[in-house]
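Title: Prediction job returns without error message
Component: structure pipeline
Severity: low
Priority: P3
Assignee: unassigned

Description:
Job completed but the reporter wants confirmation the result is attached to the right record. Sequence as submitted:
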Amino acid sequence: MPPNGGRLFNKPLQLIREHCNPDGVRQMLRLPMVLKKTFLSRDVARPMRRGVTLLTCGLLACVLLGCGTDPGRDVKPMSSPAASPAGADASAIMPLDKVSKSQAAAVSQRIANTEITITYSRPVARGRELFGALVPYGQVWNPGADRATAMAVSRDITIEGRPLAAGKYSLWAIPQRDRWTIIFSRAADVFHTPYPGEAQDALRFEARVEAGAHMEALCFYFPTVEGKDAVLRIHWGTVVVPLAISVL
């Protein structure tokens, strides 16, 4: 091998390392010309030129077949944002009086390899007394507005230690001063009233109530995510209901 023969591989290997970048791909397309100029400018025996060419072609084939895409570039959001109102033009300016009083929202959280997505509308306090007044104690209530709040889970989970199978559910509650009854209904795509009935219940349990800072608009959020465990909070006004979730 010529004294500097090892440098013949520098350009191909550099291009292979950079192949996932657009500029690297363009450079790879120029590789045959680079090799041609390299071999013409060096005193390399014909058998070695043939061997190096075959090796380079093999490396390029492996790169294109095995590493043709950068996985990081293919990552997509876990869930689509809340859909626009039917027939709405996203580019149009909406008059203020046409804006919903309880605007649509969605929150998604991946816990290990399980995805949880909650879609809901966010009623606003606007100075009103909430629980025990606007939302009566002891009556079934959908924590949201318009379409019933829904939760979709991609794999089986436990919530407050109770099993909930993968699927989509509407979410309901019976508020009390110190405890809420939480209900997951199999009737997933329904309006926020009336309650679909106990026959549709997939899960029903009691959850404790905590006091928190004032939250003007109803909010679902995940303040804690660790390993295979998370906490989902329902928060409106100064009332907070934490729900412990674990995935299998």
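Comment from assignee: result matches the submitted record. The beta strands are 103-111, 114-122, 150-153, 157-159, 162-164, 167-175, 179-185, 201-208, 210-226, 229-247.
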